[in-house]
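1st attempt posting a full record on here, be nice pls
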Amino acid sequence: MDELLGEFISETQETLEALAGVVVAWEADPSDRDRLDAIFRFFHTVKGSCGFLNLPRFERLSHAAEDVLSDVRADRRTADPATVSAVLAVMDRIGELAEAVASGASLANEDDDMLIAALRAVDAPPVVETPVAAAAPQRRENAAGGMRTIRLPLTLIDQLMNGVSDMVLARNELSRKLRERTSDPELDSAFERLSACVADMRDVISKTRMQRVDRLFAAVPRMVRDLCRDLGKRIELDMEGGDVEMDREMVEMVVDPLTHIVRNSIDHGIETPAERVQAGKPEAGLLRLVARQSGNQIVIEISDDGRGIDTARLVRKALESGAITADVAARMTEEERLDLIFHPGLSTAREVSAISGRGVGMDIVRANVERIGGVIAIDNRPGQGLSIILRVPLTLTIIPGLIVRAGGQQFAIPRAAIVEILHENNEMLSITRVGGACIATIRNIRHAMIELEDVLGLPRAEMHGPRTIMVVRSSSGIPFAMAVGSVDNHEELVIRPASPVVMMAGVYAGMTLPDNGRPMLLLDAAGLANAAGLSLAADNGGLAAPDHDRQAEAGPEMIRALRFRELGGEERLLRLSLVERVEDIDAARFGMSAGRAFVRVDDRLLWVANGHHRFDTDRVTALRLRDGDREICYPVGRVIDIVEMPTVPDMRLSDGPISGVTVIDGIHLEILDPFVLFAAMPHDPVRDDAPPRCVLAEGDDPWAREMLAPLLQQAGYDVVIGLPEDAPLRPDDVVVSVGSGATDCLPQSHPVVRLRSAPRPSGVNDPTIYRYDSAALMAAIETIRKDRAA
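the predicted structure (as tokens):
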């Protein structure tokens, strides 16, 4: 019985999440019978299960709601706002009861009678017969749900994921051992098969942790409805990307920031109907939530067409509160003014409401997003609207990070927390000590600075080169400088919880297992700042302020770029935003095929942009570049620094991969043109969502199975071996025959591509194709496909 009760509670809670949006959509369109039926079925199912499980309160509430919905289905009552509110209130109470049963807590039942009375209100409006206009087709939520499933404890899924992570680390260790031995082709082949199996298992088990973003969006329609009723506003809600999947833990971590942003948008972003009409806008505001996957990130955009953020008012608030000085305010750019929204306690709201205040708590929102390796950005359009973009990792268990060395030990830090990396001998950097505090001045901008060894209580290891200075973004958004021995690597990190004793130190966010299999601690930027006692709201109001007037206001717009040395010795620049990662790759992984250089990384092949595939060293430094969809590799001699370069070169070029030349630190440097790099790379064959199907008529022919089938599969076709016996051919099937009588049973109207074994045709009118003439074979298949499609 306990197992049945637990399953009932779980199913009830999951269905309630999905139904909240369904009820709101039904209120907007009472004629939608499908949504009404879905809601009715939920209460009917709950009522039926309660008698067997002895849950009288569930039964009483669901029975009352079922009666009301039955009247609505029979046109004896209308789905007016009061009725919908009463139904939603009963759903809330059932959710509270389910939570109480699951946790073993008690819940007072005094309010049950009041909820039931609201449902059965005798003064419900009478039915008004009105013609129902034809509704435009729209997506309908299926509360019952798209396949058969089973329930598994989350702990079991976590154990599987941990086991696979251990397998990956063991595979990496075995790979290193094999590289130290004399090459054995048979052993290498067996290891490659093992690696492929482990990678496939990792991907499959990772998918068990994934959940649709629909779950993240589920509570938004109800929240928008309730807040609109409270505030007297009209808002149209548009949500896209609910089918995008992300890690279940990531969904839970993003719920609070998303809820806060949506409430801010409704309360202080979108105007009242009267204000909107006066501003020349429609009475109803628009709130859009869009989710999409971009590489290994999930991008969630929350946008509205409200009043936007008044940055001038934000600056005045900051001046009044003493957060900044008048001198700092006078030098601030528009971007820095907008960034004040993340300063603790600042808001443009004229009064603090019980619902939200744009700016109140936004520092916490950014801290929560960055804590999981994400970033938050704002696109402000004063008077027209605001967009807030969240970029979070696809999964919480794997994040991009940097491996740094301090005190002879290695530590990891999320890449999202790093703004810039320099060496201490860089001419743009100067380090001074003022009153016992260390100050790093980078391009005339002062940053509080810490030494990582000092914060962690580690001895300073002897260095044979300059120390590395990292500009780190803290939870408050104000960057600080951190000195480390070196940056050793840049890779995807497997994140796991650290022990409570370690976490109590306050400077770690967990532990990670990099590719070398040696556990290391993940640094927490905010914890390091707190442990070092940094006053990020110091003499300049908590902002990294310039010593002199900004040259950027009068000079060219600057962007960050990676300065590196080519294998041939030339120093060049490349826009930093295109560099996915920098890593050292085994030279044996590079190769050449059909005049194109490639490299094998992460069990897949990437094109090499500059054509290099033979090297004098065992390890090669390589840039992994991504244009959003594709990834390519660019081997280099050495990465030198991250610098600022103008968006427009000092001298423009339009020939080859060099877009121009600019002067950095008195040295003229060529700028690589990423457009030319990616345009020169071969494109993968474009495949339809449903690939075309080729049927090989002679399924028992060895040549058809071993030679023809792989050729067609590599060309992107779905191959069926032998004519299907249990189902007729599809109209768009292309049948390929090697010459026997297997196709005699087909209708004469169904075209067949016939192959012959002899190089020459048997006569002038021979329609067959030589079976090793792949170009003619592919052309014939495409011609048949196009003719059938027409």
